[in-house]
Amino acid sequence: MSDPYETTEAHLERLLGRALNSFDLPDRLVERLGTALAHSSSLYTTHHSPSAGLWRETHRHTYLLSDGGAVSLWELSYRLREDRSTRCEVFTSKDELGLAVARLFGEAPSEGLPLPAQDRGGEEGAQGDLAELGALLAASAPCRRRREYTPEQSADHARRVLRRAENADRPGEGVATLLRSAYAHHITQAFGGRQCLPDGRDAGFSLYEHAFVLLDGSELSLWEVEHTATPDGRHMCEVYESEAAARGAMELRGRVR
Asked: What is the DSSP string of the chain?
């Protein structure tokens, strides 16, 4: 299961850490991936054969880089006959992935890596990746996935979020009063990445939406910015009533220090 609090840096570190062949990736590519601002992961293909004791899945991890480009890594997770341990390898293209499937499972590359109908190859696919990941950095996101709220100490969760906010323009007592009637909540990471500050320091930024359902059935969200763009590099939390205000604060912190 993906962690809603995981930053792009942590996601990439986990991926390369579990891949048996990560040392085969070109050094220049790894350096570029170190500048990733956002990421998107999706299941690409899956193949299960319980009778043969075989299992494999392929995932596509796409990263938006600071230079405006996008890079995709293809992950193959698999189990072989009479071996219950899961192994992972990572590749820079579908062709390399197909060759790995042929090597491990004795299948022709075209058989081992079927092309999903929704896949967009080549330049069109790259442009689609940029559009998809660019949306993570947009000032607004009108289309969101349906939320699954958790009814678990939501009013207390809201108090903790407001209590750790250090910004002077954080939500006031009116919002705090409304949130005392919160009975369910949902947390979504809207952005996670790193940015080079004007003074050359590297700072981490994360944006979370804390969505609450109140007793009257209405919804209310708090937008939390976590960052290290502080003079001494310490971790800081800021909370806002709107996504636009939170993203504006991130832009300001990235420019002014």
From this structure: ---TT--HHHHHHHHHHHBTTGGGS-HHHHHHHTT--EEEEEEEEEEEEGGGTEEEEEEEEEEE-TTS-EEEEEEEEEE-TT--S-EEEEESSHHHHHHHHHHHH---HHHHS---TT---HHHHHHHHHHHHHGGGSS-----PPP--B-SSHHHHHHHHHHT---TTS--HHHHHHHTTEEEEEEEEEEEEEEE-TTS-EEEEEEEEEEEEETTS-EEEEEEEEE--STT---EEEEESSHHHHHHHHHHHHH--
Distances, alpha carbon 79 to alpha carbons 53, 57, 110, in Å: 8, 10, 20
User: What is the C-alpha radius of gyration for the chain, rounded to an integer number of angstroms?
Assistant: 21
204-238 confidence digits (pLDDT tens): 888 899 999 888 878 899 999 988 878 777 888 99
Instruction: Report the C-alpha gap between 250 and 254 in whole angstroms.
Output: 6
Residues 240/169, Cβ–Cβ less than 8 Å: yes
Edge-to-edge order in the sheet of strand 236-240: 182-196, 202-214, 219-227, 236-240
User: What is the pLDDT confidence band of residue 104, given thresholds at 50, 70 and 90?
Assistant: confident
pTM for this model (two decimals): 0.48
